[in-house]
Batch of 2 targets.
Target 1
Amino acid sequence: MRRSIAFVMGLAAIIAGSSCRHTPSSPRATFINSSSRQTKVPREYLITLNPGADIKIIAGLYGRFGIKEVKGIGNNLFLMTLIEDPGAATIEELRKKNAQIKATQPNFIYQLNTPAGPQ
Amino acid sequence: MKKSLPSIAIAIATLIGAILILPHQLSAVALAPDPVISAATPQYVEGEVLVKFKPSASLPERHATIASHQNALLAELPPQGWTHVMLATGQRMAETLTAYRSNPDVEYAQPNYIYHATAVPNDPQYRQLWALKNSGQTVTSFLQPGNPMYPYNNPGTSGDDINIEKGWDHITDCSSVVVAVIDSGVNYEQEDLANNMWNGGSAFPFHGYNFVDKDNNPMDLDGHGTHVAGIIGAAGNNAIGTTGVCWKASIMAVRVLDTKNPSNPATSANVLQGVNFAVNHGAKVINMSLGGENFDQAFSDSITIAQNADVVVVVAAGNKEPNNDNDKTPIYPCNFRHPNLICVAALDQSYRLATFSNYGIISVDVGAPGTNILSGWAGANSRITDSFTLGWITTKTTGDGWDSSVLSGKAVLHDPTNWPSGTYALNTVDRAYKSFNLSSVDVATLKTSSSVNVTPDGTFAVAMRAAGGDPFSTTNPTYLWGPYYTDKVPASSESKWAISADISNCLSSNCTIGFQLKTGATADLGAAIYDFAINALTLNTTSYNTLMGTSMASPVVAGLATMLRAHNPQYTYADVINAIEKAGRTTPSLMGKTTTGKAIDVMSSLAFLNTPKGLTATVTRIE
C-alpha cells in the first residue's frame, strides 16, 4: 500500500513537473554572480532520438527535473526545456540508460563574428 | 614496305586525343588558367569577317572578290585594304575564311572578334569597395566620414583585391543559384537588395524564415545580416549604393540571431533549423558569419545533411583576439572538418591578416577582405542618453532614496544618496523612473552598467512599462533585469554589471524605464547606474554601414561560391571549393596561418579547371 502511494505520488510529481508551467506571481530573487557569460542556454538540451523511438521516452527519463516544453525541430531532434537544470553530465548519464535516445547535448550559444558593432 | 604504327600506340594516341577534346567544364587536371570560354560568351560576331586585301588589289577588284563569294561589303576600314564583310545567310565561317585566304589578292582574313571593356559597375559607392577594386584608396566609415574603423593599412595596396572586374566580364548574374544568409535576418526591402531576394512563393513571401520569432518574416532588426547579404549580392550596376560580388542574386534570408538578446543571440537549435531550412528549400550555398566555443554534434550533423545535398557552407573564422589560433582554441562551425565547409579569415587593405582575425593552419582555409567593408544596413541607428538630471521621478518608503551625481566625470544615478560612502536605508522600497518617447523607432535596447551591492534580504531590479507611469506598480512588472541580490563586489568602476535588455515591447510615446532597490533588515553599499543609453533602430530602405570582421570576409567567399555554381551548373560542392582554394592568390600573411596560404581570386577561380572525375580509358590491342 505504502509502495503504491509512493509510486502514485512520484508519478504525480513527474506529471506535475512536466505539464505545469512554473509561473510564480512575482519573480524569485535569484543570486547572480560575476561569471554570468554563458556558452549554453540554461535548462535547454537537444535530444536526438533513434529512428522509431517514442517521444514519450523524453518525459520518462527527464520528467523528474520538470519539463517545461519539448519541441520537435526536425530530423528526430527535440529541444527540451527543463524547469530545473541537472547539468549536461546528468542528462547524458540518463541517456545511456535508454537505447531509444541517440544523443544529448546542451543548446549552445553562438555569437556574431564582428569585433566592432554598428556606429 | 610500310610499317604500321604499333596498334597499342594507336589506341593510346586516340585516348590522348579524346582527352584533349573534352569540354573544359568537365573536371580535369589543374592547368594554368585559360581564358574562360563559355557558350554564353561569344568570341566573334557570327556572319561577319574582316578581309585584308593586298595593296595591289584595286577597289573594284576588292569589291568583285567579295561579290564572288555572295558576300556583302559592310565597310572599307582604315588602314587601306581592310574590308568588313557580311556573309550570306547559311554560309559557314570556316569555309568562307578558307576561300578568302586562298585568294591571291588577299593577305589574310579573320573573324570579326569581340572585345569587352573590363566591367565596372556604375554604383556610386563602388570606389569605396576596396575588396572588389583596390586602387589604394582611403576607406572611411560611411556613417562617420573621416573616421576609418580599421586604421591599419588604410589606404592599402593597389591591386590587393579579389580580382573580380575581369570575372564580371564573364558573369555577373548569379541568380540561378540560391544563397542562404543564416544570420540576423535581412532587410529585404533595402534598396540594393529588394530585387535580389529569393522568391519563396506564397509560402515564404518575405524571402526566408525567422527562427527567432518562429514566423516567416526574417526582417533584420540589427543590420548585420543585411550587411552580409549586400556583400554577396547587392544589386550591381543599378546606379544605387554598392554592388555585391554578384550583381544579380537570389538571397534567402534565414533569421537565427537575435542581437537584442546579447547573452543569447543564437543557439544550436535555431542555427541547425536554419541550415535545414536552407537545404530543404533549395539553397546551394550557405553563409554563416557566426561562431561558438563548443563542439556541437547537432550542428555538425546539419552540415553533414547539407553536404549530402551538395551544398557549399561558407563560415567565418572568428575574431577572438588575442586568442586567434583556432587550432588551439576551436571556434565552431569553422573548426568542423566537413569537406563541403570552407572557413574564411579576414584580410586588410594590404592583404595582411587583420589583427582581429582568427586563423588556423589546420582549421581556416582561405582569406578574403574583411576590414572597412561598406554594405547595406537595416536602418538608421540612434541613441538616447541620459544624465539623470531631468525628468526622473523618485519614490521611497523610508530613509534615503535615489539621487544623481557626477562622479569622476560620469553621470551616476545612485541609492543611497551618499553612495559609495554609506549604506542604504533598511526596509525600504526606493524607485526611480523616467518616460521616453520611442514611438518612432522599430527596435530599442536598453544599455547601462551598474554597481550593485545588495544583501540577500534585498533586491535590485530594472523594469519597463509601455503605458507609462511607475513600472513597478503593476501586479506583474515587466522586469528587464532582476530582481537580484548580488555578492559583495567592491563599488569600483571595474565592478559593474553590463545590463542589456530588449525594450522593443515598449515602443510607445511614454515608455518608462525604472530602477528599484528593495531592502530588508541588513544593509550594503547599494546601487549605482552609469552610462544609461537606449540604442534604437528605425528600419528604412536606404541605409549603409561600414563594418569589419571575419563576418564580412565570409560572404565575399560565399559570393564567389555562388558565382562559380552559376557559371558551372554541373559543379559539385567539391568542385567549387577546389576552384576557390586551388586558384587563390598565394598571400604571405596567410601562409602558415591557413590550410591554403591563399586569398580568393575570382577570375582565377572562374578559369580554374577541376580534376577530371569518372574518366576511364580502355586500351585495346588491335590486331
Note: Chain A touches chain B at residues 25-27, 29-34, 36-41, 44, 46, 48, 73-75, 77, 79, 103, 105-116, 118-119 (CB under 8 Å).
Target 2
Amino acid sequence: MGNIINRLFTKKFGRLSTIFICVICMVCSLCFASYRVFAMGEVSKFTFAQLEYNGGNWNPRPRGGKCLMWELIKRTSVEARIETVIVRAGDSTLFEYPFVCMSGDQEFPPFSDKEINNLKLYLEFGGTLLIDDSLGKTDFGFDKSVRREMKRLFPHKFLERLPADHTVFKSFYLLNQAYGRVTEKSFLEGITIGNRAVIIYSQNDLGGAWAKDSFGKWEYEVIPGGEKQRAMAFRLGINIVMYALTGNYKQDQVHLPFILRRQM
Amino acid sequence: MDMENLTQWNLTFVGVENFGFRLLVVLGTIAALYFSWLGIRGIGTLRKQLLLLALRTVAILMIVILLLQPEMEQQEVVRLKNKVVCLLDNSKSMTLKGGDTGVTRFKLVQDFFRDNEAFVEKLQTNFDVDYLAFSDIIKEVSYNDMKGGFTLDGTSTDFTQVLKLLKKRYAGKSVKGYLVFSDGADTVELPPNVNKLEIISNLARDLSTPFFTFLPAGNMEARDIAISNVSYDSFTFVRSPWKADVALKVSGYKDLRLPVTLKQGNDIISSKIMDIDEGELHINLSFTPFTTGTFLYTLSIPVQPHEAITENNQVSLLVKVVRDKIRIMHVCGRPSWDERFLRRVLKSDPNIDLISFFILRTPTDISEARNEELSLIPFPVDELFTQALNSFDLVIFQNFDYRPYDMSFFRFSHYLNNLQRFVTEQGGGFLMIGGDISFSQGGYDGTAIEEILPVYLNGEKDIIDTSQSKVVLTNDGLRHPVTMLDENTDRNSAIWKDLPELNGCNVTAQLKPNAIPLATYPVKGEPSLISVQDVGFGRCMAITTDSLWRWGFIPISNGGSNRHYIKFWQNTIKWLIKDPTLNPVRITLNRETVLPDEEVLIKVEVLGRNYQPLEGVQLDIDIANEFSGKSIFVTRGTTGNDGQYRFAVRHTTEGYYIVKVIARKEDNEIGQDYSIFGIALENKEFKDPSIRRDVLTKLAEVSDGKSFYLPAKNIEERLFIENPSITKLVGKRQISLWDNGYIFTILLAIVSLEWWIRKRSGLS
C-alpha cells in the first residue's frame, strides 16, 4: 500500500505538490472560516506541563511554555491550552499530562524513589519528558543533576545523541540541528524505549528563546543567531510537541519521498 | 510358451582333456603297435603273425580307451519363440469419437485386428504374443478380450510409467517388437523445465526393442473446446485481486467469440469474451474477494454443437480466502493524545498494516515557513478513497472534519459515498471516533456516512458535553465481543467500572433501530458512547469521545496497567473486520477434497459469548450439493462438554457439498457456519482430447520402429519384425563308454589269448 501511494505521489503530485497545498489552504481558509470550532473541553487539549521538583530552580522560564503554546495553536492543527500546568513527578496527576517539561539552571537534589518509580512508569507507558537546560553548561549544575537522575531512571540506558534524521527533526518542520537561546550543543540527546524517544534533552535553553514578558517583548536575547535562531527554536519546540503527539508518524513510508526531496 | 524339443549327442574324453597329452597318447599307441610288429614279424607263419598283431592292436586300443575315458553327452534342447507385445491404450480418451466420423479411437484399434487377421494369425504362429492394456498401469488381456472389447477405464495415461513397467516385466526376455495402439495422450503434468518427450525417448531407447505405433489418422481429431488448465492460487487474501490463468485447447472450431465466465453459485463474478480459434489459447480472469472463507468458483465456456467432450467446458475451483495483514486507514483531523495512544496500539500489533494520515495544519494555521521547510505532504484523498479504498479492511475517522477537502473541484462528499459502498457492499469496517470536529461537528449529518453510522446525527442538537464521567456498560455491552474485556461477565463489569473517567463526549441523537449500544455516557440523556451496527456486508462503530486514551495511561498511576485499553482496541478491530475467530460456531473438515466413498471427518465447535466451549448446544446439520441444493446428509447433534460435536460422512457422487450448521440453545440461535468439501475422481483424460502424434512418432523413431495411421490394412506388407532362432538347453546326461566290466574282461581275455598262443607256438 505504501508503495502504491508513494508511486502515485511521485508521479502525480511530484511538482504539483506545492501548488496543491497552497490551493487547498487558500480555498479551505475561505470555507473553513465560516465554521465554528468546538473543543471537547480544556482537558482534551494538549497541555504544557511543567515539572516541579525539590531544590534548584525548577521553573527558570515561567513564560516559555505559554509562548510555545501560542505558537503551536497558531501554526498547527493541535488544540492546546495556553496556560501551563505544574505537576510533580511523584503525583498521580502526572499521568493526566502525557507531555511534561523539566527545566532548570541549577543543580538539584536527587528525586525521591517514589518520584523516580512514578516517572519511569510514566515514560514507559506513553509519557514524554522534555528536559531543558536553561543554563546550557555541560557537566555543570543542572546538567550534572539531570545526568545523575537519568542513570537512576534507566540504569541500563544512556542519554544518546538523537541523529539528524530522527523524527523529532521532521515531525512538522524540517530541521537539521537543535536550537535554543544559546547553542551549547547542536544536537538533542534522548533516551529511547522501543522506537520512541521518551526523554528529549536540550542544553540550549529552549524556554529562554520562547519566553516573552507580559508586554510582548522577548525576555532573553538569543545568541549567536539572533531572531532567526529564535524562530528555529520555536520550530524545534513545535516539532517536539508534534513528536510527542504523533510518534514516528513521519517515518511512515508515505512521507519519506517528500521529506527526502525537500531535504535535498 | 510355444517351443520345439530337440536332442543332441556329444562325445567327450574326460581322462585326458589336454590336447597335447591326447596327441602323446596317439603317438605312444602308434609306437607301441610298431614295436609290437617288430616282435611279432619273426614268428613262423603269416597267419599267426596277423593273429597276434590283431590281438595286440585290440589290447593297445583298449588301454588307450581306458586312458582317454570317453563319454557320450546327451543334451535336451528346446527352440523358443521370440516375443511380440501388443500394447492397447485403455484410457478414457480412447472412447472419444473422431470429428464427424462417429467412430471411437478404440473402434479403430478393433478394426485393425479384424482387417489384419492373417497378419495377426501369422504373428501368433511365429511369435509369442502378449496382449497388455495400459494407461498408467499395465494389465494382461487376451486376444479375445481385444476382439470382444474391454472396459476403457484408465483415468490417466502415463507413458513414462508404462515404459518402466515394460522394462521390469520383460527383463531378460527376447522381445522383438512392441505394437502400441494409442492416441498418445499422455496426461502426466510435469514441471515446465522437464521435457516429457525426452524422458519417454530415453526410456524407449533403453528397451532396445522397436516400437511399432498405431495412431488414429488426422480425420479422427475430436472437436472440442476444453478448459485444459487453470493456474490459480488455492488460497488468496481478502481484498487482494485473485487471478486465474485459464488455458483453453480448441480442436475443430474456429472463428467463434465465446464468453469465459467465473461464477460463485449463480453470480457471475468475472467474465471475458474471447476469440476462439484452433490451438491453445490463454485468458486471465480476476476478481477481488471481500470476505474470508472457503468458496467454490465455477469457470465455464459454453458447449458448442458436436463437441466430443462437454465435461471439460466447466471446471470448479475451491479457493480459501484468508486474511493477510489487517489493513487499516487511520485518518485523524488533528494530533491528540487519543490519536497518539490509539496509533501506539495499532503500530505495536505486527498483524496490522497501518496507513495514517494526520492533518497537522489546517487552512487557518499560519506555519511561518515556506512549504519546503515543512514536512507536510498532501492528503491523497483521490487515491485513498477511490483506487486504494478496497484494499483496506477498516477505515478510522478520528476527530476528522472532511469539509475543508470538499471543494468544487475535489468533492470529498463523493468519497464519503465510496466509503459507504466500501462498508455496505465490500464488507469493510468503519469506525468514527469523537472529538471537537467529529460527528455533527465534522459535518457528517445528512451525508452517506450518517447512513452507515449506528447513531443519528443532528447538527442543531448535537453538542459536546465536557463533564468528566465514567462510562456505563449496557446489558448488550456486558456480553458483546467488543466490550468483553474479561471472559467472566462479573469481572468484565467490574473492569469497566474501574476504568478511568473520560473527559466528555459528542452528544449524538438517538441510536438507529438496528444499532447495539455497548456503553453510554452518564450525562443528560445518557447518550451512547460506544455503539455498533451491521451495515450491509460490513460493520460500523461509533465512539463519541476523544479521551479513551485515559484508559491506557491513567491506570498506570494507580499501579494498574494498560491491558484493558489494548484489549478493547483488539476486540474492536476484530469485530469490525469480522474476524472469523469471533464466530461462535466453527466447522472444521479433515480434508477439502476426497475421492468418492472416502470418509470426511467433520468437527463442529461452539463457543459461548464468553468464547468458552458451550455444552449442550443443539446442532442442525445439513450437507447439500452445491449446485442442485439436494441434501445428502441431514442430522442433529448436541455438543459435548468440550463444546464439540464430531461426525463423519461418505458419499459416492462427485461434486461439491456445503456443510451448514445452525447452533441453537433453548430455541435461541447462537450462530451458524458453513464449509465446503469436494468429492472428485480426478479425470485428466478429457482435459486435452488431441491426438499426440509427436509422442507416438518419437517412440517409433528412437527405437528403430515405425509409425502407422489407423485405419491400416495389409499391414504385413509394411511391417517386418525380426525373428532370429533362439534355443534353450533344458537338460543333459553323460554316458561313460569305458567305466564298465566288459572293457576290462575283453582286455584280460585278449592278453590271455595272446599269451596262450605264444606259449603254444613256443614263443616267450
Note: Chain A touches chain B through 70 residues (CB under 8 Å).
